[in-house]
Amino acid sequence: MTEPQIIGISPSIEKIRRLIRRVADVNLTVLITGESGVGKELVARALHYYSSRRDKPFVKVNCAALPGELIESELFGYEKGAFTGADRRKPGKFEAAGEGTIFLDEIGEIPLPMQAKLLQVLQDLKFSRIGGNQEIQSQARVVAATNVNLEAEVSRGRFREDLYFRINTISIPVPPLRERREDLEPLVHFFMKQFKKEQALEPYPVPDSLMELFLAYHWPGNVRELENYLKRLCVLRNATEIREELRRSLDEHPLRAAGDNGPRPSEDFIVARVTREVRALTEGAREFPSLREIRDRAVERVERAILEYVLREVNWNRREAARILKISYRALLYKIKEMNLRP
Predict the structure, then answer these.
(1) Does domain 178-252 have CATH number 1.10.8.60?
(2) Sites in the chain below the pLDDT cut of 70
C-alpha cells in the first residue's frame, strides 16, 4: 500500500494529519465526517497505513451502493444453500479484512434492521455467515465515514443512537474545500504532478485569471471537483471553457461565493445589486431623488433580494435562514410578513 498523501497547508489539514498519527494504532472505531469529495477515504487509508495493520488488508464497503437486502451477505458472507442462488460458501467483507481494516463508507445509508446486527458485531466482535451457526471472531478495525449529519438522523429515527455512539468513539471531521482555500494551490500542484506520473498528461499552468475564479468558487464537489477540472485542463489545453463555466456558476449562485457557513452575500454581489436598484430608482424620474430616499429604497430592495435568495437556498427553512442572516427567528418572520414573501 502506497503512502496516502493528505495535501494542504491549512490549520484544519495540519490538525487532521496530527490526529491520524495519534490514533492510527489505537484499536478504536473512527468516524470520518464531511461532504462528498472532501477525501474521507484518503483519511481512512492513512489511518490504516500508519497503523501496525499496514501489511494487512484494507477492505472498503460502499454502503450507499448496496441494496438493503444485500448488505448483510456482503458484510458477513453466507453458507451454501442459505438462500436461492447460494450455490457455494462466500466469505463476507469482515472475514476478508481479517486483522486489517474494514472501511464502511456512507454508513448512514445502512437500513435500520441491519444497523442492529452491525451494532451487535461491534460489541461482541463475533458474527456468523447467513445460514451458518459457526461464530467467527472479528479482528478487523472498523473505520466508518458519512456525508450526512448522523446526530440529525438519530433525532429523526433513521439511525440508531447506540450505533452512533459506538462508531463515534473517535471523530475526524474533514472540512469542505471552500473553508480552506489556502489548500487550493498545493492541491493544484499535487494533481498536476500526479496526472503526469500516472496518466502521462503534461501539466498545464493554471492562469492567474483562472486561479482567481478557483478562489472565488464555492466547490460543491470539493477536492474531487477540483481534480476533474484540472484533468480537463490538461487534456483540452485551454482554460477558456472552464473559466466560462465557473463564471456562470458564480453568477447563478452569488451568495455561495463566500461560502463558509452556508450561503451569504459577497461584497461584489451587494455592490452590483445596489447599483442596479439605484439605476432603477433614478431612470425616468422627473427629478433626481434625494440621497436619503435612494439609500432607503435601495436598501429595502436589496434586503428583499437577499432574503428571497437565502430562503430559496435553504428550501424555506426559516430557522436556518435566520442563522445564516444572523437575525432572530422572530425578526425573520416579521420581515417575511412585512415584505409579503412566499415560497
Answers:
(1) yes
(2) 253-286
